[in-house]
Amino acid sequence: MLLIACPWCGERDETEFHYGGQAHVAYPADPEALTDVEWGAYLFVRDNPKGDFAERWVHTAGCRRWFNVVRHTVTHDISAVYPAGQPRPSQESRPQNEVTA
Amino acid sequence: MTADVRVDDPAHPAPLAPLARLAHLRRSPLGHRAEEFEARSVPGPHGVRLREVPYLAQLNLRVDPASPAAARAGRVLGTPLPARAGRVAVTGGVRVLWLGPDEWLVVGPDGAAPAIERSLRQALDDEPGPAGAGASAVPPASVASVVDVSANRTTLELSGPSARSVLEQGCSLDLHPRAFGPGKCVQTTVSKVQVVLDQLDAEPSYRLLVRGSFAQYLADWLLDAMEEYRRGDA
Ligand SMILES: [Zn+2]
């Protein structure tokens, strides 16, 4: 079980949260101009990195607020938690775990 | 349109008295189990008691904590809205629970909801702009809401020397006095049920505010968890 630090409530069990997928997926500036392929890519295609991934979580059983988390998809190491709407913290702010295949 | 004042006519809201006359028809989610709760409560120095406290007034308040409207709401309630996560402000018979950075639950005695709602609504209304000022001079209205959610949850009160120990069987948070205590509240899960947990005093006594449809299950779970503290006291 992950221990996730809600920006408001502090560390809570993963079971209090729900996952919201990749963070920072911007709504297209001009949706009408998109082709079906581009619209489909916006809706459904997401990054799938082996490593750090910025993703959205919501504290469903607590304060019900959305926020962003940088989580390593192999180690589950959470290197950053930050409010929704803020840019992803820079990689240099914290040494990252290097995972080799 | 007839001249009759209809109950659902927003221009002519019905007086509240008829609702009070119907109070005897109310059924709380656990009202039929009061005697059972009493019988299965455990007396003694390791005891723990369970009871339902039905029909508490509950109002959900949302407002920007930095806004003048939030300050006015605090003055009406008699206490500033608690700014820190998981804090409770107590004023008179009313408890103001932090639910989120811009959200609170105002909990009062049975029957108090209409009066609290009215006074909060007045407090949240923006003051009228200066006389004669054009529409463009009026600052943007504060975004705020107050909603009577009294029927959303019922309240279980768990108290006694072993109350914390019982809760800890189904709650992963640290409820030890070094981390939790009177004046603190938390939204979490107890045996997988979402609750608002509010510690009333150091005995300890806790309020568990729980959705009506989960109340039976939570009560069953608590009664079962309480059973092991009956060490031949009965
Ligand atoms: Zn939270």
Descriptive report:
The complex is a heterodimer of chains A (101) and B (234). Chain A has 101 residues and is mainly beta. Chain A has a domain at 1-28 and 49-89: Folate-binding fold. Chain A is built from 1 helix and 6 strands. A 4-stranded antiparallel β-sheet of chain A has the order 3-4-5-6, with no helix packed on it. A two-stranded antiparallel ribbon of chain A has the order 1-2. In chain A, a hairpin with a 5-residue loop joins strand 5 and strand 6. The longest helix of chain A is centred in the middle third of the chain and has 9 residues, at 36-44. Chain B has helices spanning 17-21, 34-40, 68-77, 113-124, 163-168, 212-226; strands spanning 49-52, 57-63, 88-91, 94-100, 103-108, 144-148, 153-159, 185-190, 193-201, 205-211. Helix content of chain B is 24%, strand content 26%. The longest helix of chain B is centred in the last third of the chain and has 15 residues, at 212-226. In chain B, strands 1-7-10-9-8 form a 5-stranded antiparallel β-sheet. In chain B, helix 3 (68-77) packs antiparallel against helix 4 (113-124). At the A-B interface, strand 2 of A face strand 8 of B. Zinc ion is lined by residues 6, 8-9, 59, 62-63, 65 of chain A.
